[in-house]
Write a structure and sequence with these properties.
Helix content is 52%, strand content 10%. The chain has twelve helices and seven strands. The longest helix is centred in the N-terminal third of the chain and has 35 residues. The radius of gyration is 26 Å and the shape is elongated.
């Protein structure tokens, strides 16, 4: 219990809560690498005393070293993620404790993540869950565990085209202009199809008449917009039917990962999108709402 890594008396409440969560996940607050080194020394001593059966002990020794190396690497991964999560925490967090099952699943998945960039995603999830428990599902943890780095990077770029509703649900407008701009960034490919197939985007689009969307409030990153569309047709004749606007929603997993994607808005995307829609006789415009200014 000597030389604690973290002095709890000097910590703020957010960090203290994070330390408590990490301790549940790894079982200790103190000198984890010292413990690993001691375990390695103890293991070597046992192996030395057991040299009588050489054929058996050689494989035991190799297995012991493999386990020690793997667990030390896992410990290092966890500590990197926890350290980065501490930097992501806000000044105050919820008093609500984290679900124990969630904590165990988190560290069970995160311990094998060695890539620094992917560790950053895990640290944001940990910080977000410490801040407000219930933000990230166990399903999302399992999904992220199998997500390749290139998929995570490209999904972040896809999020540059995402709008959010007033309920903070992400979606993209499924238009040829969006596909063209996405291919300019990621290279030619069916990227929307790929992210749909792995479960980040809905496999189906929803179709909406422009008049039905008129008045809808949405956000594009920090900018707020209201959709301005035509009046509702007064008749149902074929001539009066509207060309629908196609929207593709993010799945629940995609929604959660979009929060930590740290995407950046695309310059002139709104302008180009509106021009593309109007060229198809989908007559909508995105009117930017001016931010409130305190007098």
């Amino acid at each position: 219990m000597d030389n604690p890594i973290i002095n709890l008396e000097k910590l703020s409440k957010p960090i203290t809560k994070l330390v408590d969560v990490v301790s549940k996940g790894i079982g200790t607050l103190y000198a984890p690498f010292g413990t690993v080194r001691q375990a390695e020394a103890d293991a070597k001593a046992k192996i030395i005393h057991a040299k009588a059966d050489t054929n058996v002990l050689d494989i035991h020794e190799r297995a012991q070293h493999r386990l020690i190396y793997r667990e030390a690497l896992r410990q290092e991964n966890i500590e990197r993620i926890a350290s980065q999560a501490a930097l992501e925490l806000p000044n105050s967090v919820s008093e609500e404790p984290l679900d124990d099952d969630w904590v165990m699943q988190f560290f069970g998945c995160a311990e094998d993540v060695c890539d620094v960039d992917m560790q950053m995603l895990w640290s944001r999830i940990l910080a977000g869950e410490v801040t407000t428990p219930g933000q990230y599902s166990k399903r999302t943890l399992q999904f992220l565990k199998t997500l390749d780095k290139w998929e995570a990077e490209n999904f972040s770029k896809l999020c540059s085209f995402a709008f959010t509703t007033e309920q903070n649900w992400h979606f993209i407008i499924d238009d040829g202009f969006t596909y063209t701009k996405l291919n300019e960034i990621l290279g030619d490919g069916n990227w929307v199809g790929h992210f749909s197939s792995i479960g980040l985007l809905s496999s189906e689009t929803s179709m909406h008449g422009a008049s039905d969307l008129s008045g809808m409030k949405l956000n594009y990153f920090l900018d707020k917009y209201i959709i301005d569309g035509p009046e509702k047709p007064s008749t149902t004749s074929i001539a009066s039917l509207e060309i629908p606007l196609s929207i593709r929603n993010f799945t629940s997993v995609g929604q959660e990962l979009a929060r930590i994607a740290e995407a950046a808005p695309m310059d002139e995307y709104i302008v180009g999108l509106c021009e593309s829609l109007n060229d198809k006789d989908i007559n909508v415009s995105f009117n930017k709402v001016k931010p409130d200014v305190d007098s």
